[in-house]
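Researcher: Go.
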Amino acid sequence: MKYQITRGRLLATTMIAGMATLAGFAANAQTTAPAAPAAAQNNEVEAVVVTGSLLRRTDTATPSPVTVQTSEQLKAQGITTVADAIRSLSADNSGSVPAAFGNGFAAGSTGVALRGLTVNSTLVMIDGLRNANYPLADDGQRGFVDLNSIPFNAVERIETLKDGASSLYGADAIGGVVNIIMKSNYQGMGADLSVGTSQHGGGNQYRFNGEIGHGDLDTDKYNVYLDVEYQRDQRIRIDQRGYPYNTNDLSGIPGGQNNNPGAGGSTFYGQVKPATQGTPGDISTGVAVPGSLWQPLRTCGANAPLTTSAGGTYCAQNLATFGDVQPQQERAGVYGRFTIKPSDDFQAYLSTSFMQSKTSVTGGPPGISSSTPHNLSTIVLPAVLSNGQLNPNDPFAAQGYDALIRYAFSDLATGSRYTNRMARMVGGVEGTTHDWNYKANLVIAHGWLESTSNGFVSYSNLLSAVKNGTYNFIDPSQNSQAVRTALAPALTKTSTTDLDSINFVASRDVFNLPGGPAQLGVGGEFRYEATNDPALNPVNDAQGLGNARTIGNRTVASAFAELGMPVLNNVELNLSGRYDHYSDFGGNFSPKIGIKYTPIKTVALRATFSKGFRAPSFSESGNSASQGFTNFSFTNYPAFVAAHGGSEYTKTYSLSNITAANPDLKPEKSTSFTTGVVWAPTRGFSVALDYYHIKKNNVIAQASAGTAIAAYYAGQAIPAGYVVTPDLPDPDHPTALPRILSVSSPYINADSLRTSGMDLSVQNTMYLPADIKWTSNLEATAMFDFKYTQDGVTYNYTGKEAPYALSSGAGTPKYRASWSNTLTRGPISFTGTLNYVSGIREIDESYTGDQSCLYGGDGFKCHTKDFYDFDLTGRYDINDKATVYADVLNLFDAGPMFNPANYAAVNWNPTYSQAGAVGRYFRLGVRLKY
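Model: Structure:
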């Protein structure tokens, strides 16, 4: 505990010291800056529309906190994708989807979760307009926009509104809004070519961006722009990284467990023991001969030494290496825009984009062991095959016994491939008429994803192969490709999403107030949404495959308005509201009020209060169902372990969670408020400190599995609404209580969720001696609480690996921060970026029923370390047309969060510390512009 307090104080002290240092420099260093040229007397500040408002304003400091990331800032930090840019925000938290989670429901995608409210409560827009969701739902439940589907090089800036915004943008904008602004008036030609590699092997990156723009809207009255980009990130294998991130055997660590296969586990060398058939003729009803021990089916290999335990002998093989640290990903796309501006009062544009993202994930070997939807742990190799011959695969056939078998298939191709394509076309007009500023847009977006999964054994074909002896278990190299293909056929599907919308917005001055003219903005939107994601395993024949099906469509009609009133010269009041009507569940009204008070020129106080909502997704209320898996440990059930003699049956295993859609769901409702202060003593220095508080009611979630699990192992009645399916009995202890195979429950409107915290933003630009320009940007978020209430029980997820069943089980860190500093002198520039994520306790009371650790036994340190990652980038301008640059990411080669409970990676947390698993990374590149 002292360690945690010290770290928290250290972080706070560092931020305060940094802020004070920047303020001191800002107050005294302005005289060192070169004299700026005199501004034109008639120069006027251009009025712009800021994310979170319909109204034009010259002051971009709105009542709501907004973070802006420019393309130049992102390039200086070595960021090359929209996903990396947005997920680097300190406000991104629990439920964020990392690209490294290749075996998740939404594999091949990335998503952002502002305030930790999951990806479905953050609205992602492009130029203020919605985009189609990724065809696969996260955890089979949550729809979201895939950040990989947005071209990076065409981005001008990213504006992130860290406040509720349903009053203007509608559903999903509870945690905030990410608005990606694309280039619209680019002139010239540019190219960017780079290569990169990891110091520890794998992960080579090849990247090219090219763009061309012609015509100036103000002088030529038109602009045409074209961007093409390509990026390939190669795979990093788990066996390219060292201990403890390449094994499931952590017995060398106090309290650690060896979850590699033991006696009765599945390896390439197989394990068998003599058995009989509980139901004669049914090879799936095997019962071990009393007192028999496990033994290898074939000779152990050099990497799997013969080992003896109480349960018998086995080949000790590490199967954790058959996976990815980083999946292979290839992105290619094109973005184009044509804009005409025949007069100062009118312009029109047409933009199109096509992005393709290919992700290839390597999977572990399938096996004959406990599994779903059919349990394989009681399958036997029959002594006599269907043709009447003795079974050559059964070493006990001559004695008249069948062979109970555990086996991992070494000769089956494994892994999945996802090819996601997103096509989007947007047409729009904007201008001024009769004192009204107006804008109208038409959006047509279509996404289609082709999924192919290999290595999932067909249950029916497995039984046939075992009965007929067509598969050679002793020497799998003798199996033909036809036999392998029949045993594990490739599974394919095509999933689609659509979003078509038309919207109109207009604003104008309506009356005068002491502080200036009041502005009114009005608008309307009509859109069509659809998802068609068929099940990859429709007849439940493929073993161990998480299954999801989502089908649905609906229309949404909306009307909204905003009134901005400068009540006094130093007081601004903003009112807004929106009504949305959904064809599948009805209507909702979302209001918001914001106020900004500037007591002195350098200080602004601001606050907002808003209501928001999230409509049930098609996965939650449509023609849908899902089955997923989480790691389950018996740490909290020592009596169960003792009853089974600590056998293989009691090791950490994949627990199935099955959830069904509920057409009676109500929309989630939220109440949010923010309050903050902005201090800007100079033009180059500003500090913003904002408090946020969000409460959700009618939270849509699967009923907590922990309640049913605790009741089952306590011998109590299973609570209403749950279905607990026991596993087949332990073959070594058939009379002991079976473990749980699956927990089923529908989606429900849970009681509530409440979270609060504070954001700190410090920005500074100044000149130091020797004509050195220093630009500094600090963004930090502290989460005070994240409380989830269900059935009258409240769980606080803050600083814990909770909610464990969410996304990748990444947890909810209390602190996140990023501090970037750039020093520029003449043609040379260096940028250093420090990223920080606080550690988490590996507990989740809502999953285990108490505060026991999600992993490990007595003595295990149930807390992940804090993660620090420092990136250093530099560039040199050879001339005004050519720049060379070099990046060293994770300069100090920091390791990832050691997190054995996480089920998205082998003993580390990829959501917050993937850079640590990749290790020190080098990139060289060149930029050309004309």
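Model: The first strand starts at residue 48 and ends at 49.
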